[in-house]
C-alpha cells in the first residue's frame, strides 16, 4: 500500500476558505442516541458525517467521501474521545488511508448481560492493488467520569485475508479475534484473542495458525481456526462436536488442527 502525505478533504476545505467559498457539504450518515442504552448522565450522542465523493484517490476510482466521527454531549460542539486515529498507529501520520471513508452501522453490543459497549467499524480508501484498512473499536461508558472510553482498538489490511471479528454469542461471547499474516515461513497467520478484563480488553491467546496462506480452504481464517482457538481456551476438546460457522458447514472435519467443510 503506497502512502502520500496529506488529507485531501482538509486541503480542499482550506482552499475553499482561502477563496471565500463554502466548504463542500457534509451529510449525516449515522446518528445514535447513547443516553438510553448506556443510561448516561449527560445527553451523549454518536454522529457520523460524510463529505462528497472523491475521485483523486490512490486506486484511481471514485470513492465515498471522508467520514468524521463524533461522540458528543453538547450537540457536536466538542467530540470526546477523539476517534480520528482509528486507522493509524501514529496520530501524526496523516496519509491517504488515515481517514475513514466507509462505515458499518454502529451497534450496541453486550459482552455480558450487564455490560454494554459501542462498536464502531470503519474502512479507508482503497489502494491501487485493492487493499484497504479496516478498524474495529469498542467503547464503554464511564459513569464516574460521565464519558466514553475506548476499551479496544485495532486495524488490519484486507488483501491477505486479514480479519477482526467481534463475537456476539456462544462460548466466546464478547471476545475479539484477529487474524494477520505472518512475515516469515511457514506463511500463516497470527491469531489473537482478546477478552474484556476489568476496564479494557486484554490478550488471552496468540499463536501461529495451522492455516497456511494459499491453502485453498474456503473458510475464513478465524472460522478455520475456531477449534484450535476454543481448545486453547478450554472451551472445546477432541471428541466433542466441532465448532462450525453460523452459516453452516456441510462436512465438518479437521485437517491437522484446521477446520474444513
Structure description:
- By secondary structure, the protein is mostly beta strands.
- Helix content is 10%, strand content 34%.
- It has 4 helices and 14 strands.
- Strands 4, 5, 6, 7 and 8 form a 5-stranded antiparallel sheet that branches.
- It is globular.
Features:
261 residues; mainly beta; five-stranded antiparallel sheet; four-stranded antiparallel sheet; 4 helices; disordered N terminus
How are the secondary structure elements laid out?
Blueprint: H1 8-18, E1 27-33, H2 35-38, E2 45-50, E3 67-72, E4 102-103, E5 107-112, E6 115-123, E7 134-142, E8 147-156, E9 163-166, E10 176-181, E11 189-197, E12 200-208, H3 221-224, H4 226-232, E13 253-255, E14 258-260
Antiparallel strand pairs: 1-2, 2-3, 4-6, 5-6, 6-7, 7-8, 9-10, 10-11, 11-12, 13-14
SS summary, helix count:
4
Structural class: mainly beta
- Distance from first to last alpha carbon: 33 Å
Q: Tell me the radius of gyration.
A: 20 Å
Structure described in brief:
This protein has 261 residues and is mainly beta. Helix content is 10%, strand content 34%.
Amino acid at each position: 500500500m503506497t502512502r502520500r502525505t496529506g488529507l485531501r478533504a482538509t486541503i480542499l476545505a482550506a482552499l475553499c476558505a482561502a477563496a471565500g467559498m463554502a466548504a463542500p457539504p457534509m451529510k449525516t450518515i449515522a446518528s445514535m442516541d447513547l443516553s438510553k442504552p448506556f443510561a448516561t448522565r449527560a445527553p451523549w450522542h454518536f454522529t457520523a458525517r460524510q463529505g462528497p465523493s472523491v475521485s483523486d484517490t490512490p486506486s484511481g476510482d471514485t470513492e465515498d467521501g471522508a467520514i468524521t466521527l463524533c461522540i458528543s454531549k453538547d450537540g457536536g460542539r466538542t467530540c470526546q474521545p477523539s476517534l480520528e486515529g482509528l486507522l493509524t498507529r501514529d496520530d501524526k501520520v496523516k496519509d491517504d488511508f488515515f481517514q475513514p471513508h466507509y462505515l458499518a452501522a454502529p451497534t450496541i453490543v453486550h459482552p455480558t448481560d450487564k455490560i454494554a459497549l459501542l462498536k464502531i467499524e470503519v474502512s479507508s480508501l482503497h489502494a491501487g492493488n485493492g487493499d484497504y484498512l479496516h478498524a474495529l473499536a469498542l467503547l464503554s461508558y464511564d459513569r464516574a467520569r460521565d464519558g466514553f472510553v475506548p476499551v479496544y482498538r485495532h486495524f488490519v489490511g484486507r488483501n491477505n485475508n486479514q480479519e477482526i471479528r467481534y463475537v456476539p454469542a456462544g462460548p466466546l461471547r464478547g471476545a475479539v479475534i484477529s487474524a494477520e499474516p505472518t512475515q516469515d515461513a511457514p506463511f500463516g497467520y497470527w491469531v489473537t484473542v482478546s477478552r474484556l478484563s476489568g476496564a479494557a480488553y486484554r490478550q488471552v491467546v496468540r499463536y501461529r495458525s495451522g492455516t497456511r496462506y494459499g491453502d485453498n480452504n474456503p473458510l475464513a481464517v478465524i472460522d478455520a481456526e475456531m477449534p484450535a482457538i476454543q481448545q486453547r481456551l478450554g472451551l472445546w476438546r477432541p471428541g466433542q462436536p466441532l465448532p462450525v460457522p453460523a452459516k453452516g458447514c456441510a462436512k465438518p472435519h479437521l485437517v491437522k488442527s484446521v477446520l474444513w467443510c
